[in-house]
């Protein structure tokens, strides 16, 4: 069963108030009642002490004194009674009380000279009273006593008045509690409803919602946590969308890369099988099939290599290498390719310069970059230079090729970026997956790589590796 927050708030506030007022009202009433009766007994004892002191004075006017005291105290709703040793009433106003019945315990206390106060007495008189029984001692002997009686009806009326005001306070407090509960419930329900509405939007796939938050209470903390959750969900969704786009792009790029060599290989095989290729052209066709097959193998190997690097399955072993020797190896391996496009590879490095790297992976990095420089340069120069300081080695590969605009520079590290270029019918070839591998390998060496290029003015790669 669902109970609305308003009713819960009302029930809790009302319950707390009622229980608190019941406890406080009971304790207060009991305290005030005891205080009233205690004050009444104290008042009676004070009058009794005054009367007894006057009775001890010699002279014939003692009854007149009692009559005067009785009339005076009657105006205050107090009666005076005197009794002798046998308990017979010797004086009472109008003879209302002919005899006083005292208990054995009361007689014992009086005989011992003690005053007997009774806050409430319900049995000996026609009405409930408060009374004080005081002994009268003459020459060390008990001769009788004095009783002052006051009805407790007046005290009860005062207590009833106090209880009535307490009831008014309870009702007023409940009314105020009702108003406060209504206000707080509407305020909190409105805040909770905002979070519910935002949650519904998030569950529908909308992650651009925000709810007002504060550190005033737990609901404000909940709103702040909700906003933080939505921010993380939005970031996760963007990352998922990015990964999905990359996956689709990757599948499209791989399909595009594989389709061209496979189509070539299939065409050659079909031509040979159907005798559509002349005999003198078959050797060339076999060479084309062999080249396209190597291209497929290289593509697969590069992808496997890239995934191994991404998943930290590649271990590098760093050693200190002469930088000039490394650059000469690159020149020897790629001189023939450079000459085919009319390019010249130059190297420049101090013979004392060293580099701290994995030999095989460093060669792989420099060959990939240099091949790209050769690919985008015709009749120009590719310069490999390097130097080392006390903390790092700097390797630069400059070319005088076609250069790149800023958008291309941001994209060259993307996997299969060459497929994007080929789809735009770029006449200068392709970048391939090599630069993606280069980026990962440089990072594995705890180094950095930067590209500086301008359209039509060449490109410069700068690699920094720590010593």
TrEMBL record:
Coiled coil stretches, renumbered: 226-253
Bilayer disposition of the protein: Multi-pass membrane protein
One of the Pfam families matching this protein, by short name: HATPase_c
Keywords: ATP-binding, Cell membrane, Coiled coil, Kinase, Membrane, Nucleotide-binding, Phosphoprotein, Transferase, Transmembrane, Transmembrane helix, Two-component regulatory system
Molecular functions (GO terms): ATP binding; phosphorelay sensor kinase activity
Residue span, Histidine kinase domain: 253-467
Primary site of residence: membrane
EC number(s) stated in the UniProt entry for this protein: 2.7.13.3
Family annotation (PROSITE patterns): HAMP, HIS_KIN
GO cellular component, one term: plasma membrane
Transmembrane segments: 9-32, 165-184
Reaction catalysis annotation: ATP + protein L-histidine = ADP + protein N-phospho-L-histidine
EC category: transferase
Annotated localization: Cell membrane
Protein name: histidine kinase
Native species: Rossellomorea aquimaris
């Amino acid at each position: 069963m669902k109970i609305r927050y308003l009713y819960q708030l009302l029930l809790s506030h009302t319950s707390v108030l009622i229980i608190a007022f019941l406890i406080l009202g009971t304790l207060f009433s009991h305290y005030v009642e005891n205080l009233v009766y205690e004050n009444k007994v104290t008042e009676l004892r004070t009058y009794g002490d005054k009367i007894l002191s006057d009775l001890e004075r010699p002279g014939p006017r003692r009854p007149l004194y009692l009559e005067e005291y009785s009339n005076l105290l009657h105006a205050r709703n107090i009666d005076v009674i005197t009794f002798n040793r046998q308990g017979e009433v010797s004086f009472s106003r109008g003879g209302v009380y002919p005899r006083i019945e005292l208990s054995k315990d009361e007689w014992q206390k009086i005989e011992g000279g003690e005053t007997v106060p009774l806050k409430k007495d319900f049995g000996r008189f026609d009405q409930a009273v408060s009374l004080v029984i005081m002994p009268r001692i003459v020459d060390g002997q008990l001769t009788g006593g004095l009783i002052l009686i006051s009805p407790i009806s007046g005290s009860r009326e005062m207590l009833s008045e106090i209880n009535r005001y307490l009831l008014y306070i309870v009702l007023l407090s409940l009314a105020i509690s009702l108003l406060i509960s209504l206000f707080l419930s509407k305020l909190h329900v409105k805040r909770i409803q905002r979070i519910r509405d935002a949650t519904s939007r998030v569950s529908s796939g909308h992650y651009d919602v925000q709810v007002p938050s504060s550190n005033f209470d737990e609901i404000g903390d909940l709103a702040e946590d909700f906003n933080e959750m939505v921010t993380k969900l939005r970031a996760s969704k963007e990352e998922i969308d990015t990964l999905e786009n990359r996956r689709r792009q990757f599948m499209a790029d791989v399909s595009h890369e594989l389709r061209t060599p496979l189509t070539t290989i299939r065409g050659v095989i079909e031509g040979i099988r159907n005798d559509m290729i002349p005999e003198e052209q078959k050797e060339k066709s076999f060479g084309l099939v062999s080249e396209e097959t190597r291209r497929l193998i290289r593509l697969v190997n590069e992808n496997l290599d890239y995934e191994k690097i991404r998943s930290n399955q590649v271990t590098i072993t760093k050693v200190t290498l002469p930088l000039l020797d490394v650059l000469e190896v690159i020149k020897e391996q790629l001189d023939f390719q450079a000459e085919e496009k009319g390019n010249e590879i130059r190297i420049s490095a101090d013979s004392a310069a060293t580099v701290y790297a994995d030999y095989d992976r460093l060669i792989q990095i420099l060959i990939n970059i240099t091949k790209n420089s050769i690919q985008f340069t015709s009749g120009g120069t590719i310069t490999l230079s390097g130097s080392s300081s006390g903390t790092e080695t700097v390797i630069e590969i400059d070319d005088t090729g076609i250069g790149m605009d800023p958008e291309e520079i941001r994209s060259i590290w993307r996997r299969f970026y060459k497929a994007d270029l080929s789809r735009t019918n770029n006449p200068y070839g392709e970048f391939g997956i090599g630069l993606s591998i280069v980026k990962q390998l440089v990072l594995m060496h705890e180094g950095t790589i930067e590209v500086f290029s301008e359209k039509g003015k060449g490109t410069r790669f700068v690699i920094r590796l720590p010593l």
